[in-house]
Write a structure and sequence with these properties.
- The chain is mainly alpha-helical.
- Helix content is 78%, strand content 0%.
- The longest helix has 29 residues.
- The radius of gyration is 17 Å and the shape is globular.
Length: 202
Amino acid sequence: MSEVIKDRELGAGARLGLDVGPLILFFAANAKFGIFVATGIFIVAILAAMMVSLALTRRVTALQLFSGAMVVVMGGLTLWLHNEAFIKIKPTIYYVFVAAILGYGLMSGRQVLKSVLGSAYPGLDAAGWTKLTRNWTLFFLVMAIANEAVWRNSTTDFWIGYKLWGAIPATLLFALANVPMLMRHGLTKDDAADASEPGPIE
């Protein structure tokens, strides 16, 4: 039997593929079959990605679990009620929920983000974790507002285009923009690639 791969041994590309792969399938399916078929494929793909993560690392992160649950619940409501508003509002709920958790950690002095990502950035000092948490909290709040503004005031095709060409690149670029600050606070060059990954992308 092959040796089980630990989470730290998964390459940056593999982890990013597990996060972005279901979204790529969603976008491709929407272009050919429409949002309802795409939503069904998205549900199956996100569950498959979680199973692959579990098989390779023997664990699924809290963010992956929450993101997967959101896709199943909101995607299921989209299909059941034949109302695309549910899948469109899902990112907003995700962003607000994560921002609230991180914000609570900041106010209470708890390193919530460190408890999730600490093993990935072992050299990062307390100030680095605080700044990273603050930055992602503000970013997720901005993204929640942006998602609401776009889906409520545009067509479905425009919203999907925004997700593909706006939200995903913005999240990746924001993650990269944090790397110099993190390296000033103890992040090593070997861990810099991990720091550029934002985790599950909505």
